[in-house]
Specification:
By secondary structure, the protein is of the alpha+beta class. It has a single domain, classed as Peptide Deformylase, CATH 3.90.45.10. 21% of the residues lie in helices and 25% in strands. The strands form two sheets. The protein has a five-stranded antiparallel beta sheet. Strands 4-5 form a two-stranded antiparallel ribbon. The longest helix is centred in the first third of the chain and has 14 residues.
C-alpha cells in the first residue's frame, strides 16, 4: 500500500471542516489501509483524512502497544457525544513536525461513528484513547492542537520537575508518538 503525503500546518485542507462520508463503498477500504500505512510510516498513533489531503470525516487510530484494551480502529463520521472531566498531557502532531505542547482535553469521551463495514459503533474511551480521539476529531473540524494551547499550561510544564507527580498526565497518557 502506498504511503500518502502528510499535509503540514500551512495546507488549507487542515483548516477546513471535513465533509461527511455519504456512502461507504469498496473504494473507501484501500484509502483507509493507506491511512494506516502512512500513520505507521510516520510513527504516529492517529491520523485524520485531512492530514493526507482528503477533506472527509475519517480517522484511524492505533494505540494498542500503549493500551492493549484499545485495538486499532478506523472511524467514519465520528462524533463525540459526551465528555467528562479534564486532564493535561503533552501532544504532538504529524502535520506539525517537531511541535509539542500541553493540551487540556476531556478525561473521558463517548464517541459514535461508523466502522469501515458500515456498522454503527458507540463506545467510551479514557486515558490516551480519549485524547487521541479528541485530537483526530478536531482535525475533522479544522482545529489543530496548537489552537488549544494556553500559556499557563505551557508554563506549568516548564516549571515542574520531570520526576515529580505533577498535574500533567504522565506515562501512558503522555503522547510519546505523534498523532
Amino acid at each position: 500500500m502506498p504511503v500518502l503525503e502528510i499535509q503540514t500546518d500551512d495546507a488549507p485542507v487542515l483548516r477546513q471542516r471535513a465533509a461527511p462520508v455519504q456512502e461507504i463503498n469498496a473504494d473507501l477500504h484501500p484509502f483507509i489501509k493507506n491511512m494506516f500505512e502512512t500513520m505507521y510510516a510516520a510513527e504516529g498513533i492517529g491520523l485524520a483524512a485531512p492530514q493526507v489531503g482528503v477533506s472527509k470525516r475519517i480517522i484511524v487510530i492505533d494505540i494498542e502497544k500503549h493500551l492493549p484494551e484499545y485495538p486499532r480502529i478506523a472511524l467514519i463520521n465520528p462524533v463525540i457525544t459526551m465528555t467528562v472531566g479534564e486532564e493535561l498531557a503533552e501532544e504532538g502532531c504529524l502535520s506539525l513536525p517537531g511541535v509539542r505542547g500541553i493540551v487540556r482535553r476531556a478525561a473521558i469521551v463517548k464517541v459514535e461513528g461508523l466502522l469501515p463495514n458500515g456498522d454503527k459503533i458507540e463506545f467510551d474511551a479514557s486515558n490516551l484513547m480519549a485524547r487521541v480521539l479528541q485530537h483526530e476529531i478536531d482535525h475533522l473540524n479544522g482545529i489543530l492542537f496548537t489552537d488549544l494551547l494556553r500559556p499557563e499550561d505551557q508554563e506549568l510544564l516548564e516549571s515542574e520537575p520531570e520526576s515529580s507527580g505533577n498535574t500533567v498526565t504522565e506515562n501512558e497518557d503522555s503522547l510519546h508518538g505523534n498523532e
